[in-house]
Amino acid sequence: MMLTRLLPRRWRLLAPLCLAALLGGCLAIPQTGLFAFRLAITSLGVEDVRIGPYSIQAGLDTSDITSLIASSLGMGSLPVQATLAMGLALPVGMPAVEMSGFRWTLDVPGAEVVSGNYQEEVTLTSADDTKLRLPVAFDLLGADRSRLAPMVELASQMASQGELPAGSELAITPGDLRGLGMTLPAGLLTPTLRFAVGEDGGLTPQR
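Below the sequence we write its predicted structure tokens.
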């Protein structure tokens, strides 16, 4: 009471408004930020594995294809290409959120780290998984024989099992998030999310 009397009249009028705005901001921002923190990858598979012009099939004799690829290495690019089939979702009961794409990084044991940008709008819900595809490529340009053979084996393993090898890590940095009538800019309470692939192909969120 004494403090209120000591404050100038204009500050007594502004104080309740400032307090209300502060509390509203403190409540709204974390509520929207939780969408990014609780984003889940529900599935992660590997499709359409190729090495240059060669499609890698399950049971392929990799010794033959290694010789063919080694002889074709020249001045051009010779990538191991694949498509990551991924499902994204929110926890049960959370309202739908629009995400303006995301940056991603994939670290596979024995291969170079690759990254890219998914630039399409993504609708995230708790009712259904959102299915999307990420094209990835590991460049074999200039690889010597000792490095080439393990990369061919990696491609064959991904094609035959339809999943990333254990120890792989996928990182996602969300873009802008829109939900509950507000927008949370990328980078504000939306840190990079990391998921590790286990021995059974399952995904474990990393802190």
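The helical segments are 2-6, 9-37, 62-72, 145-161.
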